[in-house]
Amino acid sequence: MEKDDLLFYNEYEQFYLMAKDSEAFKHFCRKAFGEDFSQDGFSDVSQVDRIIPFIPKDKKAHILDIGCGNGKLLGYLQKKTGAYIYGFDYSGNAIKTAKELYEKDSEFTQGCIGEVDYPEVKFDVIISMDTMYFAPDMSAFVDQIMKWLKKGGVFFTCYQEGDVMPKTADENTSVLAMILKDKKIDYDCIDITKESYDLLLRKREAALSLKEEFVKEGNAEWFEMLVAQTDYADKPFDEYKKEMARYIYTVRA
Fold first, then answer.
1. Could you give the number of structural domains in the chain?
2. Cα–Cα distance for residue pair 191/211, rounded to 1 Å
3. 3-class DSSP assignment, residue 150
4. CA-based angle 230:18:133, to the nearest 5?
5. CA dist 164 to 37, 122, 132, 159, 167, Å?
6. What is the pLDDT of residues 173-216, one digit of tens each?
7. For residue 209, what are the domain limits?
8. What sign does the dihedral 247-224-28-210 (CA atoms) show?
């Protein structure tokens, strides 16, 4: 597939250049999300901390992040657990930064979902933070993920409906849930729609408080983007949840 045909490819190449150098964006991430993972979405520290209990404590765990960006989320988990970290992303700028930041016990690969492969039963934990939507064939990719997991390993994914993916009735009718059911794969799910709504409000507040800092850097357009991303929450929660939903799915191999 040509890079220009990939979902948001050019936007993310520019995004990760900005994220590498912008102090205003680093401040924004810390204020909005609690930690700087160079987030473009909803991966606040409370969501990421939910992964930690699934990581074996022997410091020999192997973790894969699908769409790892510049690796900061993996770096956080490595610092907390001592795990070996692996990630892939289609953004060359993101992977370049990840390799620079995390040289020890790590492997970062530039590539797309459906093109990157790993050995069977390789990983204790596989993470997808809002990246399943990038799979050209989500059903086939679920098969690949389950092949990569060790017995007893965990697939952890944050999954949103209402923007890239269609809004369905509930967590058991999402595209991902229907795929898992069809494959007879058991899953647990937590509805974090209200958390995401509250986070959108925090994102707006954090961005507005840093407007001058973004402008001084010459990054006014990124400030405008951050504010625009919070427009979904420009309504009461009861109206928001009719259009948007967010879930955490966990699957054990």
1. 1
2. 32
3. strand
4. 55
5. 22, 30, 10, 10, 9
6. 999 999 999 999 999 999 999 999 999 999 999 999 999 999 99
7. 3-252
8. negative
pLDDT at 2 over 50: no
The Cα 199–Cα 110 span in angstroms is 30
Q: How far apart are the C-alpha atoms of 129 and 219, rounded to whole Å?
A: 26
What CATH number did the domain enclosing 57 receive? 3.40.50.150
Q: Which amino acid is at 161?
A: E
- Enter the DSSP assignment of 3: G
- Measured between alpha carbons, how far is 166 from 158 in angstroms, rounded to an integer? 15
Residue with tokens 């919070």: 230
Say which residue the tokens 């020999």 belong to.
60
Separation CA 153–CA 15 (nearest Å): 32
